[in-house]
Amino acid sequence: MGFMPIFCFRLMRKKPDLDALLRPVIADMGYVFWGMEHLTERRGSLLRIYIDSEPGVTLEDCARVSNRVAGVLDVEDPIAGGYQLEVSSPGLDRPLFASAQYEQFVGEMVKIKLSRPRRGRKRITGRIEKVCEGKVVLDEAGEEFHIPVEEIDKARIAPQEY
Known about the structure:
This protein is α+β, with helices and mostly antiparallel strands. It has two domains: 18-88, GMP Synthetase, Chain A, domain 3 (2-Layer Sandwich), CATH 3.30.300; 99-157, SH3 type barrels, CATH 2.30.30. 22% of the residues lie in helices and 40% in strands. The protein has three helices and eight strands; from the N terminus they run αββαβαβββββ. Strands 7-6-5-4-8 form a five-stranded antiparallel beta sheet. Strands 1-2-3 form a three-stranded mixed beta sheet. β4 and β5 form a beta hairpin.
């Protein structure tokens, strides 16, 4: 008898997109899914979810959403390895994730970290002038930047002191 290869097949199910998985769950609870950050660390990862609502977000709201989301994540198992779940309000210095959010804050100051340098810089703080064709137009002390949303690594509203 000759060599007979043995094949092992591991059943792999497709991991769902976290945004597509969690957005409807949070919306069904009456909250706005503002965005999320999935940060990997040496000892696991952190999944931070931001929720919002018209009357504001309380600690109890965050706990309710955390419990529901934890149940969904336990069943769907979309994150490899250990992770910590955190649910939070976006706050005054809220992060921005999508074009519609930038449009909502036209006229406000924002701190942006770019995924690649523009004019030799990766960090820009300026006023959102407008959003058009997938680009955020910022004015930083009279200098205008046209930044494609997909090139923005992180962005936060920079609240002004009055």
